[in-house]
Amino acid sequence: MKTIGLIGGMSWESSAEYYRLLNELVRRRLGGLHSAKCLLHSLDFAEIEELQVAGEWQRAGEILADAARGLQAAGADLLLICTNTMHKVAGQVEAAVSVPLLHLADATADAVRAEGIGRVGLLGTAFTMEQAFYRDRLAGHGLDVLTPDGEGRALVHRVIYEELCLGVVREESRAAYQDVIGKLVAAGAEGVVLGCTEIELLIRDEDSPVPLFPTTRLHAEAAVDAALR
Length: 229
Prior knowledge:
Blueprint (H helix, E strand, L loop, with lengths): L3 E5 L3 H19 L7 E5 L2 H10 L2 H18 L3 E4 L8 H7 L7 H11 L4 E5 L2 H5 L1 H8 L4 E3 L3 H13 L8 H16 L4 E4 L17 E3 H14 L1
Parallel strand pairs: 1-2, 1-3, 4-5, 4-6, 6-7
């Protein structure tokens, strides 16, 4: 079994989900007392969030790249960035190491295409929904990507940072997200990508009339596939 290196802490709520999922998936595959071989470098999200807001992505990328080098030196055979938004600096991370980085959007797009779906709605932080780095990666797999309107994007972003990253799950926020999903479906979305790892703490399959693609789980599944291959 290969060792999975995790660049996490952004937020730690979703990193905890990664750790749980990786171990559950390995146990399901191998049985018995098996668990995932993994290393975690958990960053202070407050520092990263300040750089996001300031648009200092180069500096943020340097921090993640340094974490990646440390994980490789500690024995990681492959790497995951445990957040959708910070895949904006995936190129910097890849350039810093010689072990493979499994890109979250690639794993997600593969799952969407496997379901025969070509048009998806995308929920995530404002950075993920509004900037090209993530939408273009999905589009590179032949997907048509829809995002909420301005009001919907602001709502989705606010709930992520002010609630979910703090471990707060509110029923009124679930209802608001369902409304946003409904509008995406009305616009032609055949499925919805939960393009922020924290959203999976709030939205479940029964909250959507179309298939959901939970990126944390899909990323973890791809990592276990690679680790056991």
